[in-house]
Specification:
The chain is mostly helical. It contains 23 helices and twelve strands. The structure holds glutamic acid.
Length: 547
């Protein structure tokens, strides 16, 4: 293996789900480290878990990394699933040297063994067991296939972690023989990661702290194979503001809470919701009453449909969630960089180039990092405001188009660039691009598709003996009589009307809003009327009055 002094980092996701912020942060730090040192950043797909890896997750992962701008340097992506022969040859060599062996226990038997150890309040450690020739014969006759375990030398293991800045130790009593090839013939993560890090000449491995203990296994295999050891750094755990660990569970928790609310509000029960969702009633009942259980993604989506929970409402965890909800990629990168790293001082707003320039391992924190959603929203708001200053057309329009690509159902997808620019210009001070979508959709749907919110109708039009509706009737006449339809002429006419009636503009703005968009929030009202056009405005006012 060629020794190299060059910095080569890698991101090695398992495509069993979409890229989440924890993974993205690992990718970002590895990328920053390589770019800072003028080295290489490589991408490897760790898809040896054939039952759980999907091509769709892989596609989405690549799209998400590209969206974030974390470009990798290997033109040929490394897929572990395509490298079985290479792993098998190395495993054969280990078996030949008696450093690996066949282990015949089924997963059920291992569960029993683990249970026995637990009963004796002892940690379960697998060490080599011997089988007679007859036993092996029997196992084979039963159709069992052996896993291959690594005979981990019983001794002390140590490594220095560059992030934690300390030496970590595993005592001999904790060494155990772990599986390196599963009964299905695929290598395990612990084995493939070592072979590939070596073959790809990885100099630095940055990864989450959940892998801290795995590192001892990796070191043991490296030693057996005579590989150079990369430098390891384990990144701080990401926490929610309430102190809980951030993760996919947060979404599950949210859906469970909403399911309880739904059942209460609709005087329904678990069995009825399970039926509506088309999922197993027993499984649903177990999940809804147990915080530790999680639904798989397909069932979660089915339950959400049944209880009418929109995906946008879930706490954002996946990179794709942030894109779909209207965050800018540079903002997310800047924010993620600060989840566990600091450039020093109180600098927070950083461009990508500045992050590359300032990045250092010493700047990575040792303790848990906080994921402060409010800070992210404020970063996004600031960046969008800068976008307005730098030019709506050159800056925000491409961002909005990108947002729309992730929201194919939005009617704004069919809108011309010039109209999107106009819409963006009407509403400054937005926090996310999703706000533009929500605020602006009503312009681009059929007049008949406007849904009047009952609370808005009640509060703005019906209250105080239909005062609002009467004003709207007056306004209809005023607007019908207008010869020129611009925001200025509309505003003048509305001002005149208000003066006559001696009331403030709010009294006319709200009824108009409800009439054109169904609710009480819209971009500035006179510009909105101009943009909607005379004919459609009048149609909507009449339709609203009929209701
Ligand atoms: N495939 C592993 C994961 O996604 C990689 C861990 C590592 O970086 O070694 O967690």
């Amino acid at each position: 293996m060629a020794a190299s002094t060059q910095v080569i980092t890698r991101f090695a996701p398992s495509p069993t789900g979409y890229l989440h912020v924890g993974g993205a942060r690992t990718a970002l730090f590895s990328w920053l480290m390589a770019r800072h040192a003028g080295g290489n950043f490589l991408l490897r797909i760790e898809d040896t878990d054939i039952a759980r890896s999907t091509a769709e997750a892989c596609r989405q992962l690549i799209e998400d990394l590209k969206w974030l701008g974390l470009q990798w340097d290997n033109t040929q992506l490394v897929y572990q699933s395509k490298r079985q022969e290479i792993y098998n040859a190395i495993i054969a060599d280990l078996i030949g040297r008696d450093l690996a062996y066949e282990a015949w226990e089924t997963s059920e038997e291992l569960v029993v063994m683990r249970g026995l150890a637990e009963k004796k309040k002892q940690p379960f450690l697998y060490r080599r067991r011997s089988y007679s020739a007859d036993q092996v014969q029997q196992f084979k006759a039963q159709g069992r296939r052996p896993a291959i375990r690594f005979a981990m030398p019983v001794k002390e293991y140590r490594f220095g972690d560059v992030v934690l800045d300390k030496e970590l130790v595993l005592g001999p009593a904790e060494a155990q023989d772990f599986v390196i090839r599963k009964a299905d013939g695929m290598p395990t993560y612990h084995f493939a990661v070592v072979v590939d890090d070596s073959e790809m000449n990885i100099s630095h491995v940055l990864r989450g702290q959940e892998h801290l203990k795995n590192t001892f296994n990796h070191i043991a295999v490296q030693e057996a194979l005579g590989y150079r050891r990369p430098i390891y750094g384990h990144l701080p755990i990401i926490m929610n503001r309430d102190g809980s660990k951030m993760g996919k569970r947060d979404r599950d928790k949210h859906v469970r809470r909403r399911a309880h609310e739904y059942i209460k509000a609709h005087k329904s029960d678990a069995a009825a919701v399970a039926l509506a969702a088309g999922i197993d009633a027993g499984q649903f009942a177990a999940w809804i009453s147990d915080d530790k259980k999680q639904l798989d993604l397909g069932d979660q989506a089915a339950v959400m449909r049944a209880i009418r929970v929109d995906a946008r409402e879930l706490p954002e965890i996946l990179v794709h969630d942030f894109r779909r909800n209207g965050y800018l990629p540079d903002v997310l990168l800047n924010f993620l960089a600060l989840v566990g790293w600091s450039p020093g001082g109180d600098r927070e707003h950083l461009t990508c180039a500045e992050m590359v320039d300032l990045f250092s391992i010493e700047g990575i924190g040792k303790s848990n990092a906080q994921f402060d959603r409010e800070k992210l929203v404020s970063f996004n708001t600031d960046a969008l405001a800068r976008g307005y200053d730098e030019g709506v057309e050159s800056n925000l329009l491409p961002a909005l188009r990108d947002y729309l690509a992730a929201n194919p159902a939005s009617p704004l997808n069919d809108v011309a660039d010039s109209d999107l620019v106009r819409l963006l210009s009407m509403k400054k001070g937005i926090r996310t691009l999703a706000e533009i979508d929500q605020l602006g959709r009503f312009f681009f749907v059929e007049d008949e598709a406007i849904v009047y919110q009952p609370e808005a109708i009640e509060k703005v039009l019906r209250k105080s003996e239909q005062q609002g509706a009467n004003v709207l009737l007056d306004l209809l006449k005023v607007l019908e009589a207008l010869t020129e339809w611009t925001s200025t002429t509309i505003e003048i006419a509305m001002n005149d009307y208000c003066q006559q009636k001696t009331f403030g503009l709010g009294k006319v703005a709200q009824p108009l809003r409800v009439a054109i968009c169904g609710g009480t929030v819209s971009p500035p009202i006179f510009e909105s009327l101009e943009f909607l056009g005379r004919a459609r405005t009048l149609i909507r006012i009449r339709r609203c009055l009929e209701i």
